[in-house]
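Batch manifest, entry 17 of 40.
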Amino acid sequence: MPESGYKRKLVAILSADGVGYSRLMREDEEATVQDLAAHLVLMHDIINQFSGRVIDSPGDNLLAEFASVVDAVNGAVEIQKEIKRVNAEFPDDRRMEFRIGVNLGDVIHEGGRIYGDGVNIAARLEGLAAAGGISISGTVYEHVKNKLALSYRYLGKQRVKNIPEPLQVYQILLESKTAGMVTLEKITGPRRRYRVVAAMTVLVIGVAAVFIWVSTRTPVFDAERESIPKGPLPASERASIAVLPFKNLSGDPEQEYFSDGITNDIITALSKFRELLVIASNTMFTYKGEAVNIALIGRELGVTYVLEGSVQRVASRIRINAQLIDSATGFHLWSEQYNRDVKDIFAVQDEIVHTIVGKFAVEIDSAERQRALQKQTESLMAYDYMLRGMEYLSRRTRSENSQARQMFEKAIDLDPDFASAYVGLGETYQIEVAFGWTEFPIQVLQRAKDLAFKALSLDKSNAAAYSLLGLLYTYEEQYDLAINKLNRAIELNPNDASSLSFRGQVLLWSGRTDDAIHSLETAYRFDPNMLHGNFMFLGIGYYLKGRHDKAIRVLEDGVSRKRDWVGNHIILTAAYAQSDRLADAERQAKEVLRLDPFFEIKNYGTVFRNRADRDKIVQGLRKAGLK
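Output type: structure tokens
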């Protein structure tokens, strides 16, 4: 092969690009030009300091080369630190930040400039960095990982424009205090993060306790069930009950957490009796604050009985009213008013549950009764902090997740044996990972696991602790281990719609589609107002079995409830296409790209254990024109 005459060299390439430069220019051209010049001088000086050479700096871009990859990374880190220091003197809206990418590659030298894929890759890496951040190639990482006191986040393999092979990409964690740590994360497009197991809607919507039940006591599944629930399924032969949110009559909105907590505790206690059918709190709290018609609720939810009540807490006293009503006749089967010291709240809850169960003509296992009426803690204050923590936890914001953590920690300080408080604390860490609020997801998930195991060491019958473990193992795609842990969770709480729903999801990932459909349909019986992600999973199940019409019906229902959630639109697109409703499929495909401009088929469905299941969905998406 003839020599080209060009000089080639292996060098480290640094590519930097300004963020928000156009906006700054529009607002104040002269000030922006001055600021840019000052930043470029700073960058030139640091590059020279680390034995680098600036190749070019047009506009707000800069390209430099280094003989040493260690020098290149050190220089990039120093640049970002110095720019951050300088920016501290400016108002937020006048700060000029840069993204930096560093690559190690072969380049062509010509006329003082450099060319080649090595340069192009550095530019693409820069585009994957956050403002004020640094992205490096896998090659760079391998050279510096044992030489520099830095921590990194692995972003996975990324496909970038005009580069045929995917790139291994790492982000340098500039604020990390722990050297040598590597965390994991995937991204699907320019600066768009795709968190681990992101296909699982549980991470998007922050469901804290949704789990599986597959044990030696698992019922036989009917693989050919044909009915798709348009609404709630017919009332079961079991006694069925819906518990309306107890009204807060304290005159203090700040006490809502207390009345809500009592409602949830009663629902949870009743749910532990397998001879009862109990509607999930997720559905019941949609009735909160509404004027309700008991007969209508009975028909809507397919239940025979409805419990309603109120809570009034004043200083150290509490008054609870409760009524058990036959939904068909409106007849009050039982009513009671409790005027007690607030410290007797646990006894009152036990009496309510005990009385309700006694009104039903069912046989109750003594062990179930003991579990249902088991005290969580002897400390009223610890219980109060626990309820406050659960209220904060349900709001799914970063600040309130932090407040929830404080509440659970206070509960544990007051009662170190309060198992449920450890579970709640563990859920705050799970949510921190699910919403991407941590740079160290692996370590944070381990902390959540430790707390769940601590709870089980205190109370081996704590269903929520098993549930949390199941969720955490699912994050790691250890599906069999998740199922093993979740067997016990739903055995302890057979009415838990969330557990049944998540079980269906993991069964889908595991390739057990028939079992998944049955589990998801059962979840819908307990929670007709199920979260929008569950419609997607049930739709996937029907789709994989070739029941496209059923998939379309359930997915259209999901879309009507939450139109801006892309998950339902994706599967609906495939279902329309495979039903030869191509106009509808193309319309849905456009909606998918509107909601997720970075959607690419290659990134979808990576959690399926059975590749054939993913391929079925991909076929439908391609038929609809998605790529």
